[in-house]
């Protein structure tokens, strides 16, 4: 039996709080957004985003496409003997990423020094590893973020609220203009990729798109004026909509607006603007 609106809202609020607590930490001010090396459980059932995003596409998207990225990332990190708590830490300097000598890689520095082992210059990761981390690491992060910004239709606010709304109005003129700019950017993006609303280090909000599984955290691969921390993400890969909408990306975008979790957008905005 479907949850009533009131119950569902309460359910989502509880889930959002749990998600925030488990992933983001319960400290005040909030700790920065992180992405663990695992798939977070979704805060909704696959069927709950219908009719806007169908359950079959969502299930395949989550259980196959996203899961495959995570598996590939885990295999790549394991092969490089790397232990990662927060996957976003891999993004900013990935073109010159290095790992410790394998024999010492799991020893904290204090134990390393006391063990008598000599410190060696970090070894740069192979091109193949860097390529895999860019694609699979980006894929895992992007999808994790994408799920966080979804919720069942009419289960929350229908647009941005509070400080996030004021920032959007300040930088785009109005929420309506922001929606138009975002949609036009997503429609104009050639092929697979992502559309983003990003909080830049200078405090501006910018709309952008990225190819493949790149994202605004990848400073080495993103123009400086588009790099920052995303507060909204839209998957533009065909696997996210073609089964339901065919080649009609515009119809998909219009449907996606109906299931955007604006409450979480506001939460993300608080986190990226927190002085921590
Ligand atoms: Fe996807």
Automatic annotation (TrEMBL):
SUPFAM superfamilies: Fe,Mn superoxide dismutase (SOD), C-terminal domain, Fe,Mn superoxide dismutase (SOD), N-terminal domain. GO terms for molecular function: metal ion binding; superoxide dismutase activity. Residues 160-266 form the Manganese/iron superoxide dismutase C-terminal domain. Pfam families: Sod_Fe_C. The keyword Cell membrane does not apply. Its EC number is 1.15.1.1. Keywords: Metal-binding, Oxidoreductase. One of its GO terms (cellular component) is cytoplasm. InterPro entries: Mn/Fe_SOD, Mn/Fe_SOD_C, Mn/Fe_SOD_N_sf, SOD_C_sf, TAT_signal. Belongs to the iron/manganese superoxide dismutase family. This is superoxide dismutase.
